[in-house]
Design a protein that fits this description.
By secondary structure, the chain is mainly α. It is built from 5 helices and 2 strands; from the N terminus they run H-H-H-H-E-E-H. It has one domain: Orthogonal Bundle (434 Repressor (Amino-terminal Domain)), CATH 1.10.260.40. It has a two-stranded antiparallel sheet.
Length: about 80
């Protein structure tokens, strides 16, 4: 499922695989493998792809509706 999300972010932003792969410093075929879920991808790269495509990763607690994003994790008080 993450491969579909990566591909959707990229396509919705009108970027090709070559552009994103250069931005995140991986080969184009590697990015293709991530999108087709042939190769596992780590969260840091998912976050970089999201940033390149002007997306934000948000976590939401279904019970409390509390939300936070990866920028919140960089704060020292958490």
């Amino acid at each position: 499922m993450i491969g579909k999300a990566i591909k959707k972010m990229r396509k919705d932003s009108n970027y090709n695989q070559e552009y994103i792969s250069k931005k995140i410093n991986v080969g184009r075929t590697t990015l293709s493998d991530y999108e087709r879920e042939k190769t596992a991808i780590n969260f840091d790269l998912i976050e970089k792809i999201a940033e390149c495509c002007d997306y934000e990763i948000i976590f939401k607690n279904k019970k409390t509706n509390e939300t936070w994003n990866t920028e919140d994790l960089k704060r020292k008080d958490i």
